[in-house]
TrEMBL record:
The keyword Glycoprotein does not apply. The keyword Protein transport does not apply. Its EC number is 1.2.-.-. This is F420-dependent oxidoreductase, MSMEG_4879 family. It comes from Mycolicibacterium tokaiense. InterPro entries: F420-G6PD/mer (IPR050564), Lucif-like_OxRdtase_MSMEG_4879 (IPR019910), Luciferase-like_dom (IPR011251), Luciferase-like_sf (IPR036661). Residues 10-249 form the Luciferase-like domain. It is an enzyme of class 1 (oxidoreductase).
């Protein structure tokens, strides 16, 4: 999998989907071969990935990430298979466990037993993707569809989970194809994520470790770091990211971002690969003062 870039659709555009497809075409022309889309409350990431994949042949598309709540895995599988057929085998499904406080604010609900839900969600998806059928009863999820659940024209869909805790990593190693950790620095990758998921995947194909790194290509490093610190401050309130900050031994979350010239950003990303990541993804912060083309050039040259 080539170095990827997260695409941020322009919500001020006359047509956001047309704008995203236009961005994807320009990124592909610049040498980018893998784009990732985040699930927000407006644009549906899986649907948009399928549309982009159909419009830009040869471009890999994926979601980073679609939370497992509140959608049932049967609905996730239907959307993912459709996107895979539309993109002619270029789609990757990235899932996230979600954040309870965010889910409470957005959906008015909280889902307990997160680790059990993750295992059952992946079990259902694995059955559908691997065999085309599913008949499952769990403590959190059940499904017994009485109709076909395979989409013609699709191919096997890789599943990645934004897992960073030990239990989530072990389940991901057992049932998924890799992990999509965001803000996990080199120490966390080398000392914790890589050995944990690799051990859990024993006997299966080696898992991909796709490090998602917030980036800002700029010549004004001090101003860029101040801006990035403001944009990333939210993550310092989430326990899983607090653990990453502590494990890395840095002062704050901004120290985990790649901020600087193209050469400096490239060097920062390379440290993740040296620590055991199989892939890196440039994740531009929303409303970043930099330009997308600078990120595309870094991704194409890494």
């Amino acid at each position: 999998m080539p170095t990827g870039v997260v695409l941020n659709p322009d919500h001020s555009a006359e047509n956001t989907v047309d704008d995203a497809i236009g961005q994807a075409r320009r990124a592909y022309d610049a040498g980018v071969r893998q784009l990732w889309l985040a699930q927000m409350a407006d644009i549906d990431a899986i649907a948009l990935a399928g549309l982009i994949g159909a419009a830009v042949p040869g471009l890999g598309v994926g979601t980073s990430v679609v939370p497992i709540n509140p959608r049932h895995p049967l609905l996730i599988s239907a959307a993912a298979q459709t996107a895979q057929a539309a993109s002619h085998g270029q789609f990757s499904l990235g899932l996230g466990l979600g954040a309870p406080d965010v889910e409470q604010a957005v959906f008015g609900m909280r889902w307990s037993n997160t680790i059990t839900r993750l295992r059952e969600h992946l079990t259902v998806l694995r059955s559908i993707f691997d065999t085309g059928v599913v008949d499952f009863d769990g403590s959190e999820i059940s499904t017994h569809p009485q109709w076909p659940i395979s989409v013609g024209g699709g191919t096997p869909i890789p599943i990645y989970v934004a897992a960073m805790g030990p239990k989530a990593l072990r389940i991901t190693g057992e049932l998924a194809d890799g992990t999509l950790p965001y803000l996990a620095g080199p120490k966390t990758l080398e000392q914790f994520i890589v050995p944990t998921i690799t051990a859990a995947a024993a006997g299966r194909p080696a898992p991909r470790i796709i490090a998602m790194v917030p980036v800002l290509v700029t010549d004004d490093v001090d101003a860029g770091r101040r801006w990035a610190a403001e944009q990333l401050a939210f993550y310092e309130t989430i326990p899983s990211y607090q653990k990453v900050i502590a494990r890395e031994g840095v002062d704050g979350v901004v120290d985990l971002a790649a901020v600087g010239s193209a050469a400096e950003v490239t060097k920062h990303l390379q440290r993740h690969l040296d620590a055991g990541a199989t892939d890196v993804v440039l994740s531009p912060m929303r409303r970043a003062p930099g330009d997308a083309e600078a990120n595309w050039a870094v991704a194409a040259g890494l």
